[in-house]
Amino acid sequence: MNAKTKDKIATGVFVAVAAFIVLLLAGLLGYILFRGVGHISFDFLTSAPETIRKGGGIGPQLFNSLFLLVLTMIITIPIGLGAGIYMSEYAPANRMTNAIRLIVEVLSSVPSIIVGLFGLLVIVNLFGFGFSLFSGALALTVFNLPLMVRITEQGLKGVPREQKEASLALGLSKWKTITSVMLPIALPVILTGTILSAGRVFGEAAALLFTAGMSSPRLDFADWNPFSPFSPLNPFRPAETLAVHIWKINSEGIAPDAEQIAAGASAVLVITVLLFNFFARWLGRYLYRKFTAIK
Predict the structure, then answer these.
(1) What is the reported pLDDT for 143?
(2) Coil, helix or strand at residue 226
């Protein structure tokens, strides 16, 4: 067998594997959307589960998921970026730094149920935050920080050394070089890590069962006082997210149309994740062009 034949065989194998993965994902998404899109309506997206006998609804759960995403990203992104920048540009190369990297990698593989139990014991009980969106956001931060730190560090290390040295040679400070030269170049990589982190927020259920809770107070969307117990903007209230709601509906089996509600909620969850990914990538391209002056 000559080299050209081997190359064609290897290329065919890789193409077949890639096509299989694409078809598998397309089939999974198509199946979820096919089962659920027919159950989506304006009332379904805005009404509460209390109207379950009228067809149910996921309005509060959808809002809780989006609100939890915002809270988690507000905590995760600054800390993750700061830690990644420190590990890449400021941390000395010694055993302590290597140990920190090892700990970060181990944390990224901890099962979600363990993080949930940790959140229950420490965040909910010890710190006294109770079952709340804030507790859930802190627990999910434990999930997302390792990924954000490693992605940021690898993105900054992937910046060509010549560009960094040229910036320093022109008299820019190290911090100015990081913020004006290195971060814009590493932005696509960092954005990918942010999207992956956000996807875990949308789909996580096990950790939120022990931190955010499995029920929500009846929300008053006319009350925007964040200190009111019935305000949707209160981060210290119990909150049932969309992923938890899907699990709860299927496990309890109380609703007569539980299967239809779960199918519709699953389709909404998938569509929300897809829309978030498209928006995040558009924002990343916009920021990249703005920071690097590339049209």
Answers:
(1) 83
(2) coil
Structural tokens at position 225: 């006082």
| 260 compared with 69, residue with greater pLDDT | 69
Pull the structure tokens for residue 119: 């959140």
pLDDT at 285 over 80: no
CA separation, residue 246 to residues 85, 146, 234 (Å): 38, 27, 23
CB 237 within 8 A of CB 216: yes
Torsion of CA 103, 106, 112, 113, to 10 degrees: -90
Does residue 178 contact residue 89 with C-beta atoms inside 8 Å? yes
Helical spans, DSSP H, in the chain:
3-36, 42-46, 59-85, 95-107, 112-118, 133-157, 161-169, 174-177, 183-203, 206-209, 242-252, 258-292
Average pLDDT, the chain: 84
**Record: fold of 61-292:** MetI-like fold (1.10.3720)
- Compute the half-sphere exposure of residue 85: CA atoms within 13 Å on the CB side of its CA: 15
Report CA Rg, the chain: 23
- Entry pTM: 0.84
For 114-140, the pLDDT digits (tens) are 888 999 999 999 998 889 999 999 999
Q: Round to whole Å and give the CA distance between 240 and 131.
A: 10
Q: Quote the pLDDT of residue 293.
A: 60
Report whether 55 contacts 256 (CB < 8 A).
no
Helix (H, G, I), strand (E, B) or coil at 58: coil
Q: Say if residue 28's pLDDT is above 60.
A: yes
Q: Is the CB of residue 57 less than 8 Å from the CB of residue 43? A: yes
